[in-house]
Amino acid sequence: MSSNEQQYLDLCRDILKNGNKKEDRTGTGTISVFGRQMRFNLAEGFPLLTTKRVPFKLVASEMLWFLKGDTNIRYLLQHNNNIWNEWAFKRWVESDEYTGPDMTDFGRRSLVDAAFKKQYDEQMELFKENILQNKEFAAKYGELGDVYGRQWRAWKTSIGETIDQIGDVIEMIKKTPDSRRLIVSAWNPEDVPSMALPPCHTMFQFYVAGGKLSCQLYQR
Predict the structure, then answer these.
(1) pLDDT digits over 169-204, tens only?
(2) In the chain, where are the structural domains located?
(3) Is residue 143 within 8 Å of residue 71, measured between CB atoms?
(4) Active site residue ranges
């Protein structure tokens, strides 16, 4: 087993042994520790876990979606990626245009009520089909607001302009690699209330030394 993966397993053991039980917005609850760090040397290979299933195509298509600056799930569904469906679906079933069965609290109810789960699955499939086949519907109900792609590629300024953080940091790495400002942030306090889901990986910083590029990510 690689040292990269061992770090992950050690962290899991630490959480189970020393973690604090906390409530969350989903009602599921979590066990957590605060302020841990893992380091991965990419010279040793890509740190893809083997002790749990990791659908790499979904990871890749989601990252490309972020980097495109896209905030609509249509692109994801075109690549058979369902990671963000529930947040867009919630906006649809809470809209005045929705006329299907009551989908209130669908996330929890679908876990404990088999009859409701069947209704939920049917409505979700109809929703996905509409997103894929109807561009106007997708533009209205597939949109997730100011999530990662918007913050990374079109951060809104106070004077109505936008900042392409990804484009800017790439140029800085090329032209001023010793800069301590090689930072990209997704956490925009003004936009958090309008986001379907506030960013989990809130910011990352690059560091160039000895012809090698390092990146440090902070995840809330």
Answers:
(1) 999 999 999 999 999 999 999 999 888 889 999 999
(2) 1-51, 56-141, 146-220
(3) yes
(4) 200
